[in-house]
Amino acid sequence: MILNCALTFDFDAMSVWLGSYKSRNPSMISRGEFGAIAVPRILDILKKHNIFATFYIPGHTALAYPDIVKRINDEGHEIAHHGWVHENPANFDEANERNNLDRGLEALQKVACVTPNGYRSPSWDFSTRTIQLLLEYGFVYDSSLMGADFTPYYARKNDEFDDRNPYKFGPNVDIVELPVTWLMDDFVHFEFVDNDTFGLSAPSKVQEIWTKEFDYARNNELGGLYSITMHPQVIGRGHRLMMLERLIENFKSHDDVGFTTMIDYAKKWRTANPLETWVASGAPQATGGAGRDKL
Ligand SMILES: [Zn+2]
């Protein structure tokens, strides 16, 4: 058994400032342009270390930077869906949530002839219908929820919840959830947005957190998935890229660690843990370790 390590990059470019932060300030929006400077640097590092990674790309970014997105695809990395313009799905009715999914799909198809099997919602926000839509659209996995750390689980639909009644879990569905956490996201550690979101951490702090999570996973969660979420416009600064290379070199130094794309791991996990047997095994509804030793 190995610890499966996934490097993931959300290539948001301008979309995060337009969609999430609703900015119409050309200077703030230009922060996203740095993402296009950073992606080639990242691709060079990945090639040097012979690592295939996963890039989550909004349709808006794909249309803005088609040549870079093509290069990501040509170099063998996974490209996955990341919304249309980094919108929060909960801000839309069903017709428009579908429209955003469609526009994201159309852009990736147009630019790189890619039909993604994976989805990560912008800013990891969901509407209450998002999982049902992902199911209908045929996605294999989602990577937006936070119900576990190193162990995938099957997503649920139709949970019932409010602040008056006991939480009621809905049924698991055939969408592999590859969980995430803000702790393992470069944006919150490093990015300065405004006086309310003030990152600018030294890489040494982030390296310590990410390395200790790695050490824990390697000691306790072999067979699981250790994933890091990075943004080219954030991690692409020189001193942070040097941290990324130190992390990669550490990960590579262990015989029981291997790199994977998110889709490759999701498919392996799904094969080892079919939905029917996973549910029948009595795996907890939110997290499940059943079959993890098969990976
Ligand atoms: Zn994003």
Describe the 3D structure:
The strands form 3 sheets. Strands 1, 2, 3, 10 and 11 form a 5-stranded parallel β-sheet that branches. A 4-stranded mixed β-sheet has the order 4-5-7-6. A two-stranded antiparallel ribbon has the order 8-9. The protein is α/β, with parallel strands linked by helices and 295 residues long. The chain is globular, with a radius of gyration of 18 Å. The protein has 13 helices and 11 strands. Bound molecules: zinc ion. Zinc ion binds at residues 10, 12, 16, 82, 86, 122.
Describe this protein with a few key phrases.
295 residues; binds zinc ion; four-stranded mixed β-sheet; alpha/beta; TIM Barrel; five-stranded parallel β-sheet; globular
CATH homologous superfamily placement: Glycoside hydrolase/deacetylase
Small molecules in complex: zinc ion
DSSP, total strands: 11
Order of helices and strands: EHHHEHHEHEHEEEHEEHEHHEHH
The dominant shape is globular
| Beta-strand residue fraction | 5-15%
Task: List the domain count as a whole number.
Answer: 1
Structural class: alpha/beta
Q: Ranges with pLDDT <50 over ≥5 residues?
A: none
* Helix fraction by DSSP (H/I, runs of at least 4): 40-55%
Radius of gyration: 18 Å
- Largest beta-sheet characterization: 5 strands, parallel
Arithmetic mean of pLDDT: 94
Describe the secondary structure blueprint for this structure.
Elements: E1 3-10, H1 15-20, H2 26-30, H3 34-48, E2 54-57, H4 59-64, H5 66-74, E3 78-81, H6 94-112, E4 118-119, H7 130-137, E5 141-142, E6 153-156, E7 172-177, H8 186-190, E8 192-194, E9 197-198, H9 203-220, E10 225-230, H10 232-235, H11 238-252, E11 257-259, H12 262-272, H13 275-280
Parallel strand pairs: 1-2, 1-10, 1-11, 2-3, 4-5, 5-7
Antiparallel strand pairs: 6-7, 8-9
Zinc ion binds next to loops.
